[in-house]
What does this fold into?
Amino acid sequence: MKNPKLLLLLSAVLSLAAVRLAAAHPAEEPQTQGPASAARSVTVRVQECSTDGPTIAREIYGQFSEHLGTCIYGGLWVGEDSDIPNEEGYRTDVLEALRALRVPVLRWPGGCFADEYHWRDGIGPRSERPRMVNSNWGGTVEDNSFGTHEFLNLCEKLGCEPYISGNVGSGTVEELAKWVEYMTAESGPMAELRKRNGREKPWKVRYLGIGNESWGCGGSMRPEYYADLYRRYANFCREFDGNRLYRIASGASDYDYNWTEVLMKSIGSRMQGISLHYYTIKGWQGSKGSATCFSADEYYETLGKALEIEQVIRRHTAVMDGIDPARRIGLLVDEWGTWFDEEPGTVRGHLYQQNTLRDAMVAALTFNVFHRHADRIRMANIAQVANVLQAMVLTRGAEMVLTPTYHAFYLYRPHQGAQFVPTACDAAERQVTPQRRIPEVSATASRDAEGRLHLSLVNPGLEREQRVTVAFERLKPSKVSGMILTAPRIDACNDFGRADEVRTKAFRGAKITAAGIELTLPAKSILTLEIE
It folds into this structure.
């Protein structure tokens, strides 16, 4: 008779070996049922004769940097004495990559870390700054060598707006008020302290978050309590010497429409913006799924969850419209993106996540949603800029790779600050769950200050290319060029030693015809056209 315990042990060993093998060698292209189907014909109508659309805020392409894992230390900052090439302590390669993206705004220091962060610990000589345990993220010891000066100077180097998340959960009103004064006042006690620490001129700090996830890691508060607390904090965070604050309330997670309603009624015009957090995640309990090993069904389900953000935005917007019909208060999706299991072998709690063409699809489809709601959405900050979750860059020692998501952001750069132009697309939809569908082609368009039209098209399907006709109400195109992002496999990723598996390439398949523009959009691809 076979020994059951021995069989169980052998099965466990084989399973572990399979997991390790899968981690070392990405899976083949997720298989779909049946052979690839023939291309379908889709018409995208660009409605450039429509009433002037809203401006797509540059800040929708914002980034998020938290003291989490190696986002800050090793990702953005290595210090002036590092052997890694740096510019005053900031990684040169990462600086150049982010400058190329034209990052408009950067959020810091959290995230959950923000409500345990005390800003005075991060100023003055670095050798004298106190250490702390980052209890939210892996119990890592934080030495505070990257603080207020380092962050705000980084923003100046990138040419982006800083977005400060203030400590409401474990801090005090006085602490946050004096931090604002320290950063933005020309004179006074806090300005003198700043000058002694090496910064003569104040910084311009527009975006100020009054707490983060106050319903959860930021204090486990009820909305009524937080609303009263917000009013008090906002009252004492004053504007100095021409600096104008855009005060942001800690808003809801996902489907908590009551939180938004309470804050809108209780805070109202005392806030300029309210945040919303929405992650593309399988579930908060148990496995979140692999970032690199997934089936076709899992791929489509991920896109379905990502696109559900549109329903969430509509419902939060409806609540806001009932109280603020003029839409003076902005909705800021200041945490969004994919969240999968940490990579095997990485530090638990550091949320290091590889990034495939699937993540780029999520980014592009989400941007198309944000554009459609540009009259309410004033900012979005993907989580996070380096080495954490859906990152732009991954670093290891002196090496850096650009992720597929980075390339999606790069393709969408022309939409920053441009005027939204409505489109209508007759593409069919794929049912991925009983509640969720995804379009076979998704489109968005905008017109920049020079009058050029940019059209981005996404074909998320794994099975077939799409024949697309772009029709115009008025425009007679005379010139078209494009860039495309695709790869042979949807689970393709860029990693150390193979950094260019997923990258943008010139697209020359768009032809001007009597009908407008015609092209074939490959399967699993993202395309941006510039049309004159």
Remarks:
- The mean pLDDT is 93.
- The first strand starts at residue 40 and ends at 46.
